[in-house]
Amino acid sequence: MSTGSPWSSLLNSETYGYLTWEWKAGIRGFTFPLFFAFLYKILHLLNYDSVHLLIWLPRIAQALLAAFADVKFFFLVQRLENRDVSRWVFFCHLCSWFSWFCCTRTLTNSTETTLTSLALSYFPLSGSKAYSSKKYLFLVALAVIVRPTALIVWFPLLMHHFCQEEQKLRLITHCYIPLGTLVLVISSLIDCFFYGKWTLVQFNFLKFNVLHGVADFYGSHPWHWYLTQGFPVVIGPHLPLFLHGCMLASRKHKILLATVVWTILVYSFLPHKEFRFIYPVLPFCMIFCGTSLAHLKAWRRSAAVALLASNLVLALYTGLIHQRGALDVMSHVQMLCDVSRNSTVSQPDVLFLMPCHSTPFYSHVHCPLKMRFLECPPDLGEEGYADEADRFYDDPLFWLRTSFPYKSSLPTHLVFFNVLEKDISAFLQGNGFRRTAEIFHTHVPEGRVGGSIFIYEKL
């Protein structure tokens, strides 16, 4: 990461990197990335911190956590349902293309979903005899620390538990308060240590995203987006089974259905929407899908084959082909590290002329290579504010000519989507840039995102 904090000492003696505005504003907590930092530190101490391990080890760790949560989820369903239904619920869960797409990604949403599945296995659902209030509440508190919006999913479940609990005062004094306080204090101490000052990340997260509406800066959608697009895409080919399963659902599963509906409704009131935000309710939905599949009888085998085939196609396409250029281009950039180490004349200087955060950054390079991208911090109250990416795309040639008035200040490499090439061709030709690589990105280019990524190098 960036220089000058205790965080950097966990990674390497050679400090380089980039901190996004969220870390400068204190709305991101260190508890979650600290886990990966320890993995990186272990690799460094063993002298195995190659770029490939730095890329793959966090994914493997995330995948192992997701696999453990899947096993716990299967045992939970076995306790709740008969053998036939539980088998089909788990089949539906393993088939989900969106789970394949997200579960190994080091997103807070992925960890939130994993912790939610683990917590659900200890939650006092009707029919479950292996519940533990302290265990599930500890995991819920941890999920909220990782991503405060986890409280949206768990609010109806917490209320349900409270209403069903006979010893309500004991639940509050022996579970809710001590466990919530313990996890909050530990995460706050971690954040204060690494930020170097008193920082309550959960309050900052609420202040920026809800009270100040900063999330709206990154796009807003109509209120019905999750109903008409978000949820149908996330649940994918399971949708007909889910709707059928809702009609078959027993009374003991009504709280899970209520949680799904509640989560989608609450997120629908927030202007900024993304598919991954509702990922944590996907395991809940699989219980209804499996119930439906178990009741199909004559059509069960055909439905199962169709479900597996359709999800497999989606998972393979989105996981291996769609928008892969963002990762592939970093392999080309990473090769410049050898040039940087061996060159004594001109050090590589890479400029990404793309929508901000289109590609990974130093985690996929692992060397102090000079790199820069178009930044897009939100409007924090400045009059007439426009982020750097918007200013660039308003007039790419003007931005380039004013940013690099002298040839000596030019970067050595430019990385951009093919749709931009025509707009800046005069700059490329006038300054002696030539295309050295073309990398496939997507079959469905849209707006500023093209179908290919070009790398241009200065002669």
From TrEMBL:
CC per GO annotation: endoplasmic reticulum membrane
GO function terms (MF aspect): alpha-1,2-mannosyltransferase activity
Its annotated function is as follows: Alpha-1,2-mannosyltransferase that catalyzes the transfer of the third mannose, via an alpha-1,2 bond, from a dolichol-phosphate-mannose (Dol-P-Man) to an alpha-D-Man-(1->6)-2-PEtn-alpha-D-Man-(1->4)-alpha-D-GlcN-(1->6)-(1-radyl,2-acyl-sn-glycero-3-phospho)-2-acyl-inositol intermediate to generate an alpha-D-Man-(1->2)-alpha-D-Man-(1->6)-2-PEtn-alpha-D-Man-(1->4)-alpha-D-GlcN-(1->6)-(1-radyl,2-acyl-sn-glycero-3-phospho)-2-acyl-inositol (also termed H6) and participates in the nineth step of the glycosylphosphatidylinositol-anchor biosynthesis.
Q: Which residues form a coiled coil?
A: none
Looking up PANTHER family in the UniProt record yields: GLYCOSYLTRANSFERASE, GPI MANNOSYLTRANSFERASE 3
Q: Does the keyword Metal-binding apply?
A: no
Give the transmembrane ranges. Answer: 25-43, 55-76, 136-159, 171-196, 223-243, 255-271, 277-296, 303-321
Q: Where is it chiefly localized?
A: endoplasmic reticulum
Question: Would the keyword rRNA-binding turn up in this protein's UniProt record?
Answer: no
From its record, what is one biological process in GO terms? GPI anchor biosynthetic process
Q: What is its EC number?
A: 2.4.1.-
Q: Which UniProt keywords apply?
A: Endoplasmic reticulum, Glycosyltransferase, Membrane, Transferase, Transmembrane, Transmembrane helix
Similarity-based family: Belongs to the glycosyltransferase 22 family.
| Pfam annotation, one family | Glyco_transf_22
Record's subcellular location: Endoplasmic reticulum membrane
Q: How does this protein lie in the membrane? A: Multi-pass membrane protein
Protein's name according to its UniProt entry: Mannosyltransferase
Q: Specify the species.
A: Nothobranchius furzeri
Give the enzyme class.
transferase
Where does the UniProt annotation place the signal sequence? none
Q: Which domain of life is it from?
A: Eukaryota
